[in-house]
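Quick one: structure tokens for this chain, please?
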Amino acid sequence: MKSKLKRMNLFDYINYLVVALLCASFLYPVLLTVSISISEPQRALTQKIILLPLGFTLDAYRFLLSDGRILGYYRNSITYAIGGTLVFLLFTSMMAYPFIIGSFRGKKILNFYMIVTMFIGGGLIPYYFVVRALGFIDTIWVMIIPGAVSAYNVVIFRTFFSAIPGELRESAHMDGAGHYTTLFRIILPISKPLLATFALFSMVGKWNDFFTPLLFIRQDALMPVQMMLRRMLVLLDFRDTQNKDLLMIYSSVSPRTIKSAAVIITIIPIMAVYPFLQKYFAKGVLVGSLKA
């Protein structure tokens, strides 16, 4: 350990300092929100919380979790995040795989059509009409199907697949494997860092998406948890409940503590996903940087 410290130069110390400051800047808002959510309501309203909570109470969490709607919102968000991620990985992989096949004749035309979509968009109103024409409004499919494939992600997947030795595909074909078998039994198992990295990106994006349900979902039973958070932060409409017990709890909490508790409840599940993908994420973040 001492020899390692001796080998460190000024740049190393500055680098560690910058990383430490960045970590602190990322963690501080989360810790502050936690402190506000568990602070005593009156003290949270009248005193400034810098880091540590003022008192301790879980009434804000009790108030939120006692409302049965939040469990439905969680179920919807989990369905959208997992379903959307699986569809995204499946469709993107199947779209990218033909580009590494040398005998695929439509490669240039398909590549041109795909790249054009990166620079030209139809706009929000045409997008709304397309979604409505497909019958996706007020269905779970509006959160899963639109945007499942993007040209940028296909390019990254294609770059990663092209780096896999072609001899593996050739040997699989010699053993009688078709393209689907080669993709799902040879290519994708080797591509775990790629799949894990983009699965994390997709799950975070689907979990945080509130604009899509804001436009296309009207039924409260289909709303994701992000819509609950938006209501809590903007409207605080949980006050309209008719449950007397909840109203009694509300008398012991404040809008500030409720909003902070809602934020924490919303971000905890997606933060818990990262440790399971961490070993692949470090490799996957460099995907596409070595070969274009």
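Residues 240-250 have pLDDT under 50 and may be disordered.
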